[in-house]
Design goal:
The protein is an alpha+beta fold. It is built from 14 helices and 27 strands. Helix 1 runs parallel beside helix 11, helix 4 packs across helix 11 and helix 8 runs antiparallel to helix 9. The structure holds flavin-adenine dinucleotide.
Length: 502
């Protein structure tokens, strides 16, 4: 017995989940609903939505480490986390038109010249290339379609009924599910909050991660780039840890993100030589401990650094750059940092020190840089999930994945999807095996066979037949409460109970 899976969000997490399922001949129906477009129709301007979601037009840097992004190793342990991320990297390789062009940067030693001021995080990063993501997307999409996955494009999910197991969309569509995979990413952050509020989901609070996107000519950083293309400088004290985040080089462009109606910044790099601008950009992000209600605090801060409906740009010497399409990056230029200092409530000093110390280790940098304010990683309070399959503790057939579960990155988001799919596969194997044996004749004679198996439990046959709906519900509730059966059987009972309660 295979259950119908609805995946909300054709992003990195959802697509990897579907791929794992079809690769393993999952027999249930798989439907993916996304408010964006398929990879053949998705234009460059749609940075966050459509096939592969925000990963579709990202820089395509697949970090292969549990040091950054999400809490994968907390859920499944270090070894399993690495194995899951490897599967995601392999998928990108598998659908890449020129897999031989994927570059691996794998720095192994911290260079001496940064040591007095910074640490350098060392781990492998696979560089897929933004330009290739388009082609990867098309082949990957074609594969999933050929395997029977049904896609609903330009369809926004507007509500979900966890009790009736129905997803409601604009255009009056609705879809029933047995299992729901919820992977709406950052572009669906408002919707995620709505759903969490509606169902009063228990959450885990997260520290704030906020800062700026720093940009400068690449030549100033070349010495470090030669050692680590996507270098990650870091430092920390008791209260604040800082790191450079998501470094882009060669053809590096600053990208505007829109979250909660405000602008913030990120970056991406093109592979095609035609786009080379010899710039470097990276986030300088702070994680601050001890902020009460960090999510609310970060949102208020972001709101304060908006002017003319966009974020801010400051530089002692430079002008804002253009996007890869030659349009000015949307940002209001400010002459001094007063408004930024005010919004950051004393914490901007950390960023200022970070920049000043970079000037010491990269002596040509001087005043030849600019910052786009803010860059933010909204670590919204994360719903509490069961670690083994990322299902909600209150609704075990609803799985949160990717950035909707604070993944922050392509490999981690994809790994979430893969993990959920693995659990669904093992569950459906277990149920199928159980059903195969459930009605088989036992070693005793048929006459003596007075028992019939229900939901993995044995009960006198006559007894079962006499149960009316209310008795059956009570019986299931008791069995679920007493936890005498295996996990998958209890899950089957929960599903049956839900159906009876509809
Ligand atoms: C410019 C940029 C560059 C980046 N570069 C990198 C990088 O180089 N390396 C890296 O590791 N990470 C990078 N990231 C982050 C990475 O892309 C995300 O962490 C990752 O894509 C998250 O995957 P996801 O599946 O959770 O969500 P997404 O990939 O964002 O997908 C979510 C999908 O859900 C859909 N959706 C949202 N709400 C709804 C709704 N209500 N109804 C229907 N559909 C909905 C969206 O259309 C979208 O397609 C970058 C992000 C950006 C914006």
């Amino acid at each position: 017995m295979n259950k119908d899976v609805v995946i909300v969000g054709a992003g990195v997490a959802g697509v990897n989940a579907a791929t794992k399922l079809v690769d393993n001949n999952y027999q249930g129906k798989i439907t993916i609903i996304d408010m964006g477009k398929d990879p053949y129709l998705r234009p460059y301007e749609e940075v966050m939505t459509g096939f592969l979601g925000a990963g579709g037009w990202s820089d395509g840097k697949l970090t292969y480490s549990t040091q950054i992004g999400g809490q994968l190793s907390k859920y499944v342990g270090e070894d399993k986390a690495m194995e899951l991320m490897k599967q995601v990297v392999d998928n990108f390789r598998r659908f890449h038109p020129h897999p031989e062009q994927i570059i691996l940067s794998n720095p192994t030693e911290e260079p001496e010249f940064i040591k007095p001021y910074f640490g350098l995080r060392l781990f492998p990063v696979w560089h897929i290339g933004t330009d290739y993501l388009h082609e990867i997307g098309k082949s990957w999409y074609d594969y999933l379609v050929s395997k029977g996955v049904e896609f609903k494009w330009e369809t926004k999910v507007t509500d979900i009924n966890f009790y009736k197991q129905v997803v409601f969309c604009d255009k009056d569509h609705h879809h029933s599910y047995d299992t729901l995979i919820f992977g709406v990413g950052k572009s669906g952050i408002d919707f995620t909050s709505e759903i969490m509020k509606k169902y009063d989901l228990p959450t885990e609070e997260k520290p704030a991660q906020i800062g700026v996107r720093f940009e400068a000519p690449q030549k100033h950083f070349q010495k470090l780039i030669d050692i680590a293309y996507d270098f990650k400088l870091y430092r920390k004290d008791d209260k604040v840890s800082l790191r450079s985040f998501c470094t882009n080089n060669n053809a590096a462009y600053v990208a505007v993100e829109e979250t909660y109606g405000n602008h913030s910044y990120n970056g991406h790099a093109k592979k095609d030589e035609a786009f080379r601008n010899n710039m470097t950009n990276f986030g300088i992000l702070m994680e601050i401990k001890g902020i009460k209600e960090p999510f609310k605090w970060a949102r208020e801060l972001v709101n304060k650094v908006q002017e003319n409906s966009t974020g801010l740009f400051y530089s002692p010497t430079r002008e804002p750059s253009t996007t890869s399409e030659g349009i000015d990056v949307s940002a209001t230029k400010i002459e001094n940092l007063d408004v930024v200092r005010d919004a950051f409530q004393g914490y901007y000093n950390y960023i200022e020190d970070f920049i000043n110390d970079m000037k010491k280790i990269f002596p040509t940098l001087k005043d030849d840089w600019g910052i786009y304010v803010p860059e933010v990683k909204y670590l919204a309070p994360e719903p509490l999930v069961n670690y083994e399959d990322l299902s909600l503790t209150k609704y075990p057939n609803v799985h949160f994945v990717g950035d909707a579960l604070s993944a922050r990155g392509i490999s981690v988001s994809g790994a979430h999807g893969t993990l959920v799919a693995e659990q669904l596969l093992s569950m459906s194997d277990a149920i199928n095996e159980f059903l195969e044996h459930a009605d088989k004749q036992g070693p005793w004679s048929e006459e003596d066979d007075k028992i019939h198996t229900i939901g993995g439990l044995t009960m006198p046959k006559e007894n079962t037949n006499k149960l009316n709906k209310e008795e059956r519900k009570q019986y299931l509730k008791n069995e679920i409460h007493n936890k005498r059966s295996d996990g998958y059987i209890i899950k089957g009972m929960k599903d049956e109970l839900k159906k009876l309660e509809k």
